Amino acid sequence: MTESSELPCAASPVVRGRRAGRSDVDLVRAVRNDSRAAAEELVARHWDGAYRIAFAILGDRHCAEDVTQEVMVSMLAKLGRFDSRREFGPWLHRIVSNRALDWARSRARREALPRSVAPSASESGGDPDLTEALAALPPDQRTVVVLRHIGGYGTNEIARMLGLRRGTVGSRLRRGLDQLRNELEDER
Question: pTM higher than 0.85, yes or no?
């Protein structure tokens, strides 16, 4: 993982693309044949994007690191279930967002999501008001907003990733963006 916790834009090659070299499908095939080097390359290739999704949903870098690490271990164990006719990135991001959402819901049951966990501007590399406003969203809305505006996924892709109807994704996205706008207007 890189030193920076900066949230990427949707066009970032770390989030949506792949680095030069073997394709994800080739790496998955090699991992299925017990190649440790391919497993390391697959994890290295997708760590930053997975971390950024987890961080944006959770608003806490330590929790995001834990979730990302847990997802990477789980991903390697579940590669047998991956359908190589599909894109690897959305499959992995679905696992990351679901695990982060589960973690956020679990934490919300134990305690209200404290705004103090939101990173400072220097930690996130972004607008601290936006980071705090994201942390204030309910986890289901936060997940959809993050996947759309940080992950760069469309409504149909998000619906497939989360197992939701397109209309549900749209309404969560709209409510989340409305709340973000209200939070940000109140801050300024």
Answer: no
Longest dimension (CA), the chain: 55
Cβ pair 62, 123 in contact under 8 A: no
Closest to 151 measured CA to CA, from 87, 108, 104, 106: 87
**pLDDT(125) > 70:** no
- Cβ-proximal residues to 7 (8 Å cutoff; 6+ apart), any chain: 52, 55, 56, 124, 125, 126, 150
Q: CA of 65: how far to CAs of 5, 61, 72, 98, in Å?
A: 11, 6, 10, 15
C-alpha to C-alpha distances, 58 to 46, 96, 117, 162, nearest whole angstrom: 18, 11, 9, 17
7: nearest Cα among 49, 63, 68: 49
